[in-house]
């Protein structure tokens, strides 16, 4: 599923303009902003640490999708630096591999969870296999 990605610095003003800290409302406002490419929807993804990830499409701004994160025990958290970058890398890597939006969010969560279990911002890299089978990983997590 192709997506438009972009960061607008002015989007940081949305919570102040609309007097809310509800991330689903903020995501819907951002998704509804004007855009150049009218042929596909704007997809807004908001991660918020240990809280669920919120995804809103401009096609359905009043129907946010909520994705629970992969829980990591507090005792296992070493360093949260780079967790968002790791999420972005896992997400985009999965999209490049042709995965669905749901699978790409899962890939982002997986790499973010791996990142916070180690000292990430100090030169150590995470390995993301090119032939990763998300269904196998999900089955192992449910067991």
Give structural attributes.
3 strands, alpha+beta, 143 residues, 2 domains, globular, single chain
Please write out the topology.
Blueprint lengths: L13 H5 L4 H9 L11 E6 L2 E7 L7 E3 L15 H14 L4 H15 L18 H9 L1
Antiparallel strand pairs: 1-2, 2-3
Helix pairs in contact: 3-4
Task: Please provide a written account of the structure.
This protein is α+β, with helices and mostly antiparallel strands and 143 residues long. It folds into 2 domains: 1-69, no CATH class; 70-143, no CATH class. Helix content is 36%, strand content 11%. The chain is built from 5 helices and 3 strands; from the N terminus they run ααβββααα. The chain has helices at residues 14-18, 23-31, 83-96, 101-115, 134-142, and strands spanning 43-48, 51-57, 65-67. The protein has a 3-stranded antiparallel beta sheet with strand order 1-2-3. Helix 3 runs antiparallel to helix 4. It is globular, with a radius of gyration of 16 Å. Residues 1-15 have low confidence and may be disordered.
Describe the structure concisely for a colleague:
The protein is α+β, with helices and mostly antiparallel strands and 143 residues long. The protein has helices at residues 14-18, 23-31, 83-96, 101-115, 134-142; strands at residues 43-48, 51-57, 65-67.
Number of strands: 3
Uncertain parts: 1-15
Distinct helical segment count = 5
Tally the structural domains: 2
What would the principal axes of the Cα set say about the shape? globular
Order of helices and strands: HHEEEHHH
Largest sheet: 3 strands, antiparallel
Name the average pLDDT: 78
What share of the residues lie within helices?
25-40%
Give the radius of gyration. Answer: 16 Å
> How large is the share of residues in beta strands?
5-15%
Trace the largest sheet across and list its strands: 1-2-3
> What structural class do the secondary elements suggest?
alpha+beta
Cα-to-Cα separation, first versus last residue:
29 Å
